[in-house]
Amino acid sequence: MAVLGNYCDPRTSLAQAWVQGGFSPCFYATLVPTVLLTFSLFFGTFHWVCYQHYGTAMEPKFVPRSRLYRLQQGLSVLLLLQFLVGMIWRAEQGTELHGHVLVYGCLSALGWACAIALLHLERRRVLVQDRTRGHSAVLLLFWALAFSAENLAFVSWYSPLWWWGLESTDQQVEFALWMVRYLGTGALFLLGLKAPGLPKRPYMLLINEDERDLEHGQLLLGGSPQSQSTWQGFRKKFGLLLPYMWPRGSVFLQALVLFCVCLLGVERAINVFVPIYYKNIVNELSDGSSWKTLTTTVCIYVLLKFLQGGGAGASGFVSNLRSFLWIRVQQYSSRVVQVRLFAHLHSLSLRWHLGRRTGDVLRSVDRGASSIDSLLSYIAFSIFPTIADIVIAIIYFISYFSAWFGLIVFVCMFLYLTLTVIITEWRTKYRRDMNAQDNAAKSKAVDSLLNFETVKYYNAESYEVGCFEEAVLKYQSSEWKTNASLALLNQTQNVIIGAGLLAGSLLCAYFVSEKKFQVGDYILFATYIIQLYTPLNWFGTYYRVIQRSFIDMESMFKLFEEEEEVKDDINAGNLQFKAGKVEFENVHFSYVDGKEILKDISFTVMPGQTVALVGQSGSGKSTIIRLLFRFYSVQGGCIRIDGQDISKVRVTHGVIPCQIVTLSDLIVTDFNETWHADLVTKVILLIHHHLAGYDTQVGERGLKLSGGEKQRVAIARTILKAPQIILLDEATSSLDTKTERNIQASLAKVCANRTTIVVAHRLSTIIAADQILVLHDGAIAERGRHEDLLDKGGLYADMWLKQQQAQDSDSASDSETKDQQTEKLQPVTGHSSH
């Protein structure tokens, strides 16, 4: 058995931290476990009390079962046991057992026992907070401190008091135990960031959703956007972007990409040689080298600075050249994404477009497209180069100076990146909320302006302005939280960088004063470390920009994920128009499950015939027209045009409707067939005299035109298209009686020898139809010609009678009004005559 000796080894002292080129083992073995145990006891106790008094027990069904969590537990227990095993092994060696070895083993084991208890506690209880997700800061910082402490061993690489030489069995065992600690603490910290044993979403949100699921009997889709990490689904998001980073089909752009990558490598090499030549200049000036040698060194240094620029990759010739060449590639990526998204939006069903908010969609597309530009540039030319610069710097400092300098760079980088990730993930919710409030404000403004007439009708200007101001105030509140959290992150980063620069500069200055380094070596270190910290300082910005880009693109990705309700078959061909025969065969359709709109609809429109659809509002007339356009897919039966099932042909080939103007454009932009010109002119001349003929701008959504003018322009455009099949959905509902008759005469000429389906409420406009279908509750109640339906005395006859009575009543009211006006004028006339 070992004999208990002095607290420290005779060769070292607790008061002396640095001995023989490394840390004093006694000092290290006392300081590290003391810090870890103090941290775990103090903060762990506070953590335990908070969770016990203010937390709630998690229901087992919400706690995920994970093998990674078992690994997390196993590593924690392994680390605790290795300290005990280490003490037992040292005791059995029969040599003198120093006090610091017992302190190191006992305190470390107690500290890890506390960590295991906290890990178990967090799996059983949770604080009642909506935003709680993942491990607490106490556990994460404990694992981070433990891993950082094991990295301090690298500082003593050359010290004979440590076990790096592996010359004896004792040193080999010590090294093996250190490897277990190093790999275990590193793995625990990485697993802690993932938190595999805890719910991925806030526990209270899961509880609330579960209660709503039980109440409504349905699953809620998606989760709270406030709680999801922006890196969730990173592979899927990056997979969508990857095809746009490599410009397929363009050899020139591909060559530009490869050349830009080569320029990146050149920049990395320049960043290494600039401080080296700066050091050479200082040393040559100090040593009194020849003018020729000094001139050559200075010229090379200036050339390198010219290529590098003011800082690492900032405004240098190489950087500017790369940025210039990358413009074409960036434009390609942005263009392809925007065009694809625009095409995808047009491929979505009418059901989706009826439920969308225009302002929200436009803001999502705008932010998403702009974020792609920054995302690709930062990932390709900022993140990867910065990581490469840091790795190269660590290797260079260790090989040229000592492990101390490499450790300083590594620790600063580790702490910097760790805190940047933690704080940035924490402030993600504020950025998301700011985007949501921004969308709400812009959507409110767009909706209000698009409905300008309605606002004026109800004298609601002040109400709309108040609502918009309230939305802006909510946005500014979220914006303040976002900017305040950003300021906190920047200050934290500055503290870490300043501490690392101070430690490295003092150490290098000490070696220069001890004549171990030359003055040029200090210049080399100072130049290189500042040059390194420049991209490291920007690394936090890169991370924030990439994270913000992912946040901004989330809405755009959701648009991409919208399923196309109406899709083409794999082998779908073009719709071949022959004669214009339209067939509905046992068609069933419903907008919402459980409420059928069309029930077993069957009819045939022969080429050149006119079929009218009439019925009460909500009977399914307009739905039939929409199904012909394939705005929706039928749930039963089929629709054929010239014998072709329209569900088997491409959606892009259809028929031309006669509907209200929606695009801000000229009234008539071109004439494809000159024989229509006279007929179009007759329709256009019916528009109010203040319009400027064919060059009239209709305005957004046709706001510059009245309701009647919109219908006239729509009819004119339909005439110019000369479609084989014409669908008229209340084509003259906004026209007066006289104008309607003129337009009907013009339409009769256009519709001659063309298949026409008319939806009308004014029965007088469809008297001459070859067939009239009377819809009632989604089914065809009656069919036939006008005279036949009147003779039946059914629904159609009743509708006809009511419309005739209404017209007679209106005529009688007009006559009575004229008689009253005449009576009022007679006394005046008689008095004047008298």
From TrEMBL:
Gene Ontology cellular-component annotations: early endosome membrane; endoplasmic reticulum membrane; extracellular region; Golgi membrane; lysosomal membrane; melanosome membrane; mitochondrial outer membrane; multivesicular body membrane
Molecular function GO labels: ABC-type heme transporter activity; ATP binding; ATP hydrolysis activity; heme binding
InterPro entries to which the protein is assigned, alphabetical: AAA+_ATPase, ABC1_TM_dom, ABC1_TM_sf, ABC_transporter-like_ATP-bd, ABC_transporter-like_CS, ABCB6_N, P-loop_NTPase, Type_1_exporter
Endpoints of the signal sequence: none
A Pfam family annotated for this UniProt entry: MTABC_N
TM ranges: 27-50, 71-89, 101-119, 140-163, 175-193, 251-278, 298-318, 375-398, 404-424, 495-513, 519-539
ABC transmembrane type-1 domain ranges (all copies): 258-548
Assigned EC number: 7.6.2.5
Annotated catalysed reactions: coproporphyrin III(in) + ATP + H2O = coproporphyrin III(out) + ADP + phosphate + H(+); uroporphyrin I(in) + ATP + H2O = uroporphyrin I(out) + ADP + phosphate + H(+); coproporphyrin I(in) + ATP + H2O = coproporphyrin I(out) + ADP + phosphate + H(+); protoporphyrin IX(in) + ATP + H2O = protoporphyrin IX(out) + ADP + phosphate + H(+)
SUPFAM superfamilies: ABC transporter transmembrane region, P-loop containing nucleoside triphosphate hydrolases
Region span, Disordered: 806-834
Domain ABC transporter, residue spans: 582-802
Keyword list, A-Z: ATP-binding, Cell membrane, Disulfide bond, Endoplasmic reticulum, Endosome, Golgi apparatus, Lysosome, Membrane, Mitochondrion, Mitochondrion outer membrane, Nucleotide-binding, Secreted, Translocase, Transmembrane, Transmembrane helix, Transport
Quaternary state and interactors: Homodimer.
Family, per entry: Belongs to the ABC transporter superfamily. ABCB family. Heavy Metal importer (TC 3.A.1.210) subfamily.
Protein name: ATP-binding cassette sub-family B member 6
Organism: Paramormyrops kingsleyae
